[in-house]
Design brief:
mainly alpha; disordered N terminus
């Protein structure tokens, strides 16, 4: 592993790329929240309907297996088995509802506050960002301060970031570290390349690509229509599955032709 003293220009380029990557991550997270705010209730309704279809299909499979074995359908046993198999889906629904509620409570941050938070984050990152100072993850206090800084940066919480900056300086001084010193970074050329690739990936994938969607009102309307159409299709499919299950439970003749995942 090559370790060498980097030049000011190399160091600054690396810092800029780290900051750019982190800013893009933040923007992507905000865009994801915007997407959830705009389409979240419809997405939840779609997923809820899909989960209902999955549950019905599992019940039908259970009934078919019982019939094929010459056994009668035990509804209580079926209920217990299916509930166990559906636990992860129920948890996903619960988490999605929680995310929706959090998005609805989101506060809009004034531009000047967001800019000040960004400057504070940059100061903190230059001191204890793990990509810049790997030793920060070896110290429990610095590591916790860094995690706090990331969370505060995503909220643009300038008060919290101001406090973290002071605490980070104090901790570095306690450890005998020079706060103003330029840090030696190993394999900087490869690190720069990796950062550039990561930045390119963020820019060209969702949720960052949602920027294009929100720039055109007609695209937003089209997306609403797409989700609503899919909800309608799954609601019809759910009715078909309910009728099929009802036939099983009431001793009817059933032929299964699956047409959905």
């Amino acid at each position: 592993m090559a370790i060498y003293k980097i030049t000011d220009s190399e160091y600054e380029k690396y810092i800029r790329l780290v900051m750019r990557r982190d800013q893009l991550r933040k923007e992507a997270a905000i865009l994801e929240q915007d997407y959830l705010h705009e389409f979240g209730e419809e997405i939840y309704s779609l997923f809820e309907t899909k989960v209902a279809c999955i549950e019905l299909k599992k019940k039908i499979h259970y009934c078919q297996a019982q019939v094929n074995s010459g056994k009668s359908v035990q509804t209580e046993e079926m209920k217990k088995i299916i509930e166990m198999e559906m636990q992860q889906y129920y948890q996903d629904l619960k988490q999605m509802m929680h995310d929706l509620e959090m998005v609805k409570e989101r506060k809009i941050v004034p531009t000047h506050v967001a800019l000040h938070a960004k400057r504070l984050y940059r100061d903190i990152a230059k001191m204890i960002h793990p990509d810049i100072l790997p030793k920060s993850v070896e110290d429990e206090i610095l590591e916790e301060l860094w995690h706090r800084a990331v969370r505060a940066y995503h909220r643009s919480d300038e008060d919290e970031l101001s406090e973290i900056k002071i605490l980070a300086i104090h901790r570095m001084e306690e450890l005998g570290m020079d706060v103003e010193a330029q840090i030696e970074i190993d394999d900087i050329d490869q690190r720069v390349k990796d950062l550039e690739e990561e930045i390119e990936t963020i820019i060209n994938t969702d949720p960052y690509q949602f920027r294009e969607l929100f720039m055109q009102e007609e695209l937003i309307e089209e997306r609403h229509e797409e989700i609503l159409d899919e909800i309608e299709r799954y609601q019809k499919y759910k009715i078909e599955l309910e009728e099929m299950l009802d036939l099983f439970l009431n001793g009817g003749d059933v032929r299964i032709l699956w047409n959905k995942d």
